[in-house]
């Protein structure tokens, strides 16, 4: 993936979110218990505004976004589109390599371009699945594979560093993820206390999870069950996945 592809995904997937009809706003979102589509869109718009605030004013500015009032339902499509458009403008105005505050520590503008592309694609999938369960359009394979990489290299170490850490009986456990629909190197997540290591290509592992890039991404983000493996091995994989859980 490159900057142009991430930007295109942010715009295209955001357009799909903005086009969801008001009549669908009450549909429950399976991946986000207690949420309907309206709340999902509100969440995503706020995340766009939060990211824009990080880019323009840093972490202190981003903290102010939570205090902004929620839009009325009838205003939500336009409000969401404005949120996405302002984020795109901020990203376009800045050098992707320029330093930027991020929730994961010091980073660059490119971090936010990548993160917001994935945030938008995943929640577009959530919204379509809510409106018509089982028929959501798959996330583009290249974007999904990059999303798996982001999950492994950004979110897994972040959550391991903030939570109780790796359980003793999972210390050293390794799960390999293999795409079946695009030519991408396998990822092996090896739990090495206190954090984790990601190895690319062929590596020894305790479990192997295969599937399309989209299915692997949905599995990582708790939208789908890992397939295969089965039985006790699947239980271990699920425990590894459960180390990271965020909406």
From TrEMBL:
Protein name as annotated: Maleylpyruvate isomerase family mycothiol-dependent enzyme
Pfam families for this protein: MDMPI_N (PF11716)
InterPro entries from the UniProt entry: DinB/YfiT-like, Maleyloyr_isom, MDMPI_metal-binding
PANTHER family the UniProt entry points to: CONSERVED PROTEIN (PTHR40758:SF1)
Domain named Mycothiol-dependent maleylpyruvate isomerase metal-binding: residues: 15-128
Keywords for the protein's UniProt record, in alphabetical order: Isomerase, Pyruvate
Gene Ontology MF term list: isomerase activity; metal ion binding
GO annotations of cellular component type: plasma membrane
Taxonomic superkingdom: Bacteria
């Amino acid at each position: 993936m490159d900057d142009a592809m991430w930007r295109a995904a942010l715009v295209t997937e955001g357009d799909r979110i903005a086009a969801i009809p008001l009549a669908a706003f009450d549909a429950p979102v399976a991946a986000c218990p207690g949420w309907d589509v309206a709340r999902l869109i509100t969440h995503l718009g706020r995340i766009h505004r939060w990211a824009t605030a990080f880019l323009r004013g840093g972490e202190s500015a981003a903290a102010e976004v939570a205090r902004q009032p929620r839009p009325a339902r009838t205003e939500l499509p336009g409000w969401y589109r404005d949120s996405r458009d302002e984020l795109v403008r901020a990203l376009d105005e800045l050098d992707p390599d320029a330093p930027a505050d991020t929730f994961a520590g010091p980073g660059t503008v490119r971090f936010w371009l990548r993160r917001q592309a994935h945030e938008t694609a995943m929640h577009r999938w959530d919204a379509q699945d809510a409106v018509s369960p089982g028929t959501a359009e798959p996330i583009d394979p290249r974007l999904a594979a990059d999303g798996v990489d982001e999950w492994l290299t950004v979110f897994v170490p972040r959550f391991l560093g903030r939570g109780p850490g790796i359980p003793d009986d999972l210390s050293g456990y390794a799960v390999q993820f293999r795409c079946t629909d695009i030519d991408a190197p396998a990822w092996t997540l090896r739990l090495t206390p206190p954090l984790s290591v990601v190895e690319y290509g062929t590596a020894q592992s305790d479990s192997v999870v295969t599937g399309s890039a989209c299915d692997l991404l949905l599995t990582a983000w708790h939208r789908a069950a890992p397939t295969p493996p089965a039985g006790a091995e699947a239980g271990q994989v699920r425990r590894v996945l459960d180390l990271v859980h965020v909406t």
